[in-house]
Amino acid sequence: MAERGSNPVGPREDDELKHELEGQLRGGRPTHAQEAYEPEPPADDDIRVDPGGPVPPPGEERERAQAEREANTLRGELARHLERTVFPAGRRAVLDGLEAHHAPEPVLEAARRLPDDGGRYTNVTEIVDALRSGPTG
Q1: How far apart are CA 48 and CA 80, in angstroms?
Q2: Are 95 and 108 in contact (CB under 8 A)?
């Protein structure tokens, strides 16, 4: 007989609970209309907050924060579509790796802006840094 430890429900009930929650976990939102459990919509006088965090005031700080968010997004997309075995890589190898993994067009466009000077990149961060260092191409 298998020891159940401190689990208050048996395997059968556990499977039923998993099945009930599966839709909610995959969809990221409730799957049943149970008004008592739904969050209330924001009130008119609630403070609006950007999902990425507080929004800096207009000006240089906001532009810097926006550029950082864009760089982080690009870094994530590059990491998602480039295998580690590609590195160290030049511009052509980066483009070939992205095309082979069907990277989205904005990511390919960014990679096309990499300098064609024979430089080699050892990781995704170096690619993003090269793109942020100034207009090239």
Answers
A1: 31
A2: yes
What letter does residue 136 receive in the DSSP assignment? -
Digit-coded pLDDT (tens) for 45-74? 776 666 666 666 778 888 888 888 889 999
Residue among 118, 54, 115, 106 nearest 76 (CA): 106
Q: What is the pTM of this model?
A: 0.54
Q: Hey, how many other C-beta atoms are within 10 angstroms of the C-beta on 29? A: 8
CA dihedral 39, 45, 46, 49 (to 10 degrees): 130
Q: How far apart are the two ends of the chain, measured CA to CA in Å?
A: 68
Q: Is 114:97 a contact under the CB 8 Å cutoff?
A: no
CA distance 110 to 105: 9
**What single-letter DSSP state applies at residue 115?**
-
